[in-house]
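Handout, section 4.2: multi-component inputs.
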Amino acid sequence: MDAGGVGGAGDSCFEKMETEEERTELLRDRFRLSVISIADAEAKKLGMQVAEPVVACIADLAFKFTEQLAKDVELFACHAGRKSVNVKDVILSAHRNDHLTSLLRSFSQELRDKEPKTERKRKKSSEKGETSVPS
Amino acid sequence: MLSTLSCQVGTGTSKKSRPTTANPSALRVSCELLRLFVTEAIERAAIIAEAEGINKIEPTHLERILPQLLLDF
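Output:
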């Protein structure tokens, strides 16, 4: 790989840059594969064909969107004083579009319903069972 | 993969020693968001192509829907 225009940096810094670029390229390629499969499935569902440059363009756009999303979501978590990104942070990132927000909310609700272990629900049901008769 | 990307973006300018991590559910919801992005792009471009009576989605169709798509997301 060609040495990037990083002047004056030490060898370790340069090496880190190269691996980070390589990592980004690898991620971009893997990401593109996923986007291609989603786009092809959708086009098939609509009974239409998609030109290859269109899919490549959508893949690059989605990658950039993901980078921005990651940055936004990290800022939200940091703003809330957390070190880990939450579902609420992701839903908040879609705040500009009400329809999108409701779609994501219902999706996250579905995920929560599918989860077998919900401690809160257990507490509620145990409270119901334990109705102590006041003497 | 999304977690690696999130970590990458984080280490760029953050002063923290540890990169930011993400909740597994948060990752799944992010995946859904991205899937919706791709799906919406294809569906909107398909509408334009169909209106022209063409069976194949071309770059010109994508061009037409792009501004509104980016505003909506």
